[in-house]
Structure formats: structure tokens, C-alpha cells
């Protein structure tokens, strides 16, 4: 009887949480009622962002892979001198995968091939596409240089200067730009301006650049020596 009584007194106590547990549960319940919807939304958004990022990376990889195949087709067609095949693959690449690096590379490659074939109009179109659509500043600079060369071949002197002066070349390309400007100005009979452009090219090119010798020879042909750099300018 005594044991039964003790058992009966313990059973009701086991059915109740202590005061601290009740306070914790009440706090959690209040917090969830106030912030639960917001937290759920944040979690859903985080998962959506993560899934979207992974999806974008997958899509980007597929784009790059398809563009690489088309680039190889353009390259092979130029090597095999298959003009129509090269232009067909290039057209698909530009229209369907125009934001990829391969589109800019293929356009430069095709433009140079077309210029070698003296297909000036098609070459200029390829280089103009790069200038208008490529995301890489270096690609744009190369396209402007090549396009000016095409214009020089056609003796379009003013157009060549406009092409060179119409783009803010990155620093590493400014020596080549000024050298090309010197070529155009010399063809126009503007010798003093050509000398100034060649000097600017010489200054802009790194001291170890082999092309510096080419610029120096152009100045020598005009009876000039490259101007010495001002004190403290070296390495600037």
C-alpha cells in the first residue's frame, strides 16, 4: 500500500514540464509566430538562389561547350580555305552564342582570313562585329587595329584614322595604335605628325618589346631618332 501511494504521487508530476521548460517553449512559440513566415521566406529564397546559380553555371558551361565546337569549325574551315563553311559557322556562333569568348575569337580569326583573301567588305564586317559585341577590351582593340589595316589597304586614310581614334585603347595596345596612326599619317604626307605618332608609339611600348625596333626603324627612315624618355619616366 505504501509503495502504491508513492507511485501515485510521482505520476502527476511526470505529466508537467517544469517552469523553465514552459518559459522556453513560450519564447520559441512567440518568436516563431512573429518571425516564422519571414524565416521561411528567406530559406526558400536562399534555396532558389542556390538552385538558380547552379542552373546558370550549367547553362554557361553548355553555352561555352557549344561555342567551342563552332569555333573549331570556323578554324578548320579557314585552314582548309572553305570560305562559305567558315562564314556559316561564324554566323551561327555570333547569333546563338554571341556573348561567349569563342565568338570574339572566331570573328577575329575569320576577319584575318578574309583580309588575307582580300575580301575587304567581309573582313571589315567581322571586325566591326567584334567592336560592337565583344566583352573583352583586348578583343575590341585588336579588331580596331585589324579594321584600320583593312582600310589602309583600300587607301581609306580618313576612315582608318577615325577607327583608331574612335576607341579608347587599353594601355598595352596604345603603342600599336600610335604606330598605326603614324603609318596612316605618313601615307597622307603628314610627315611631322607621323614622326610625333611614331615617337608616341616608341614611348608607349615596353623597353623589352621587339616591336620597338620596328618603330625605331620607321623613325630612322624619316631621319629621326627616338626621343629620350624624360627623367623619371622610365617604368611609369
Structure description:
The chain is mainly alpha-helical and 236 residues long. Among the domains are: 55-155, Serine Threonine Protein Phosphatase 5, Tetratricopeptide repeat (Alpha Horseshoe), CATH 1.25.40; 169-224. It has helices at residues 2-14, 19-79, 83-96, 101-116, 120-133, 137-153, 157-165, 174-187, 191-204, 211-221. Helix 6 (137-153) runs parallel beside helix 8 (174-187). Mean pLDDT is 82; it is low at 1-15 and 231-236. It is a single-pass type II membrane protein.
Q: How many strands appear in the DSSP assignment?
A: 0
Percent of sequence in beta strands:
under 5%
Q: Mean of residue pLDDT?
A: 82
How far is the first residue's CA from the last residue's CA? 102 Å
The helix content, as a percent range, equals over 70%
If you compute it from the alpha carbons, what radius of gyration comes out, rounded to the nearest whole angstrom? 35 Å
Category from helices, strands and their pairing: mainly alpha
- Using the alpha-carbon principal axes, give the shape: elongated
Q: What is the N-to-C succession of helices and strands?
A: HHHHHHHHHH
What composes the largest sheet? Answer: none
Query: Which consecutive residue ranges, at least 5 long each, have pLDDT under 50?
Result: 1-15, 231-236
Enter the CATH topology name of the domain at 55-155.
Serine Threonine Protein Phosphatase 5, Tetratricopeptide repeat
CATH architecture of the domain at 55-155: Alpha Horseshoe
Amino acid at each position: 500500500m505504501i509503495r502504491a501511494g508513492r507511485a501515485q504521487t510521482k505520476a502527476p508530476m511526470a505529466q508537467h514540464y517544469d517552469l523553465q521548460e514552459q518559459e522556453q517553449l513560450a519564447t520559441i512559440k512567440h518568436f516563431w509566430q512573429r518571425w516564422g513566415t519571414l524565416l521561411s521566406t528567406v530559406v526558400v529564397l536562399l534555396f532558389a538562389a542556390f538552385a538558380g546559380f547552379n542552373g546558370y553555371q550549367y547553362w554557361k558551361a553548355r553555352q561555352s561547350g557549344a561555342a567551342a565546337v563552332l569555333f573549331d569549325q570556323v578554324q578548320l574551315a579557314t585552314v582548309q580555305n572553305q570560305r562559305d563553311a567558315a562564314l556559316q559557322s561564324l554566323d551561327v556562333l555570333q547569333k546563338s552564342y554571341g556573348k561567349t569568348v569563342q565568338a570574339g575569337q572566331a570573328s577575329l580569326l575569320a576577319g584575318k582570313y578574309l583580309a588575307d583573301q582580300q575580301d575587304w567588305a567581309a573582313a571589315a564586317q567581322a571586325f566591326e562585329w567584334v567592336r560592337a559585341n565583344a566583352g573583352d577590351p583586348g578583343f575590341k582593340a585588336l579588331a580596331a587595329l585589324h579594321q584600320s589595316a583593312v582600310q589602309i589597304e583600300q587607301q581609306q586614310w580618313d576612315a582608318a584614322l577615325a577607327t583608331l581614334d574612335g576607341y579608347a585603347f587599353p594601355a598595352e595596345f596604345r603603342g600599336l595604335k600610335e604606330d598605326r596612326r603614324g603609318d596612316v599619317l605618313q601615307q597622307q604626307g603628314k610627315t611631322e605628325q607621323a614622326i610625333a605618332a611614331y615617337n608616341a608609339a616608341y614611348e608607349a611600348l615596353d623597353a623589352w618589346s621587339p616591336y620597338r625596333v620596328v618603330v625605331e626603324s620607321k623613325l630612322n627612315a624619316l631621319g629621326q631618332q627616338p626621343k629620350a624618355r624624360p627623367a623619371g619616366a622610365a617604368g611609369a
